[in-house]
Amino acid sequence: MIILTVTREDKLPDWFVEQVSPYNFRHETCRHDPFRVRNAMLKQAILDGHDKALFVDDDTKFRPEHVDMLLARNLEIVGGSYLTRRAENAICAVRNNAWVSPDVRGLLHVNMVGCGFMMLDLEFIKNLPTPWFRYEFYQNEHGERDQTSADFGLCLHAESCGYKVYCDCDCIVEHCL
Question: Quick count: other Cβ atoms within 10 Å of Cβ 136?
Fold first, then answer.
């Protein structure tokens, strides 16, 4: 498994470097179009022979047991639970066009989960048509057509190819809002 992080800044916070130091880790800086960098990082992780990739945003705090929880799920796409900036009192996961409540527990089948703490099985990624990270359109909670972020686009792309997306609502990591 490898941990991948894409940031707008060259320097990572010291606390972040400390939490990822026990793992195989790769960081890339990108000020525009992070989906292209994420796609390139996934491709390199596959070429390097990794079986899983864990994307972690540089404003997400986690502990080793959080990584273990997602590994134990052994799913194609599974994200941890963390608060989102895009909606009040919601985690960064969408199910049936609605943000998921932070009160939900257990493993939840969702339509989209954020890349702030998202584990991908790279065997599944190899079978998914490229580009993996992409922008997609969907119907938002107001019934309007909306464009996704690239991480949500990956989830909708995977669903359209017959894969399921999950959020482990027991794997609660801290999003430094």
Answer: 18
The structure tokens 């969408």 sit at: 94
β-bridge mates for residue 55, sequence order: 4, 118
Helices (H), 21-78: 34-47, 64-73
Q: What is the DSSP letter of 123?
A: H
Q: What is the residue range of 135's domain?
A: 2-175
Q: What is the CATH number of the domain that holds 49?
A: 3.90.550.40
Q: Please tell me the distance from the alpha carbon of residue 119 to that of residue 117, in angstroms, as a whole number.
A: 7
Kindly report the number of other CB atoms within 10 A of residue 75's CB atom. 19
* pTM of the full structure: 0.90
Ordered per-residue pLDDT tens for the chain, 177 residues: 999 998 888 889 999 999 999 999 999 988 777 888 999 999 999 999 999 999 999 999 999 999 999 999 999 999 999 998 877 788 999 999 889 999 999 999 999 999 999 999 999 999 999 999 988 877 777 788 877 788 888 999 999 999 999 999 999 999 886
Element (H, E) at 127: helix 122-127
Which token pair is 7? 């940031």
3-state helix, strand, coil in the chain (%, to 5): 25, 35, 40
